[in-house]
Amino acid sequence: MSSRATEAGIRTGSRTRQRVFSWVVGSIAVVVSLVVFVVPFAFIAVQALKTRQDANQLSFAWPEEIVLWQNVVDTIQTRDYIVVTALINSTILTVASVTLMIIFAAMVGYVLQRRTTRWTGFINFLVLSGLIIPPAVVPTIWVLQGLGLFRTLTGMVFVEVAFGLSFSILLFRAFMSTIPRELDEAATIDGAGPLRVFFQVIFPLLRSVVLTVIIVQSVVVWNDFVHPLYFLPGDDNATVQLTLYNFQSQFSTQYNLLFTNILIITIPPLVVFLLFNRQIVGGFTTGAVKG
């Protein structure tokens, strides 16, 4: 009896230590998340409430006078409503890019997972190369100029699709392995062609990974600063991240309007992430565990 009691006590103590360890790790994770994500956002929001004189101090103090609405109006009216133009351009760019990513990545992932040929290894190498090899700016500009797509939203859409396709293909391919091949065979026996099998049988089953790609890639494209700077110059083609230059100059910076601009362009992806956070985790988990 004493040995059993000892073993039971050891197991109970082990469980208690595991719970304490889990609680400590969870608490540390929450604190780190607050420091990394919540504190910077709170700092941006506080500065957006201030007048120009108060915001120039870059302090975390609560403003004596709240002028958020006036800051929003001044930010939107700057340079003939360039922020509105940027919001429209970024919305078009994000929707078009993510739509093409989903279609192309789903089809490529389906073929790579379902068919094995002598070219499969080489294609997988190309897909992984898209994640490893950094993009070349000058050759890309030369290609876009040759196609007549430089300084156009259409060309920028193709650039975003090319840069985000590899990651999307890997997600779709991993998730595709969870779908039984018997569905393909049954649809083929019923007389369905390859395109009909994919779009009517397979694609509706990809809802979770499609949501994951939509959310992740939408945030990536929306927050992209470097690529529009290189491949989409011009005020008429401005995207939301490039509008941050509107309130900075060599000798002065309007911090109140700058942080208001950051707040305006941060809210849409933040809302999307908060609403669909579970879908993101679910899509990654399904592809990783069952793939």
From TrEMBL:
PANTHER family: ABC TRANSPORTER PERMEASE PROTEIN MG189-RELATED, ABC TRANSPORTER PERMEASE PROTEIN MG189-RELATED-RELATED. It is found in: Cell membrane. The lineage of its organism: Bacteria, Bacillati, Actinomycetota, Actinomycetes, Micrococcales. Residues 87-276 form the ABC transmembrane type-1 domain. The chain crosses the membrane at residues 20-46, 81-110, 122-144, 156-176, 197-222, 255-276. PROSITE patterns: ABC_TM1 (PS50928). This is Carbohydrate ABC transporter permease. It is a multi-pass membrane protein. It comes from the Bacteria. Belongs to the binding-protein-dependent transport system permease family. Keywords: Cell membrane, Membrane, Transmembrane, Transmembrane helix, Transport. It holds the Pfam family BPD_transp_1. Its main location: membrane. It comes from Aquipuribacter nitratireducens.
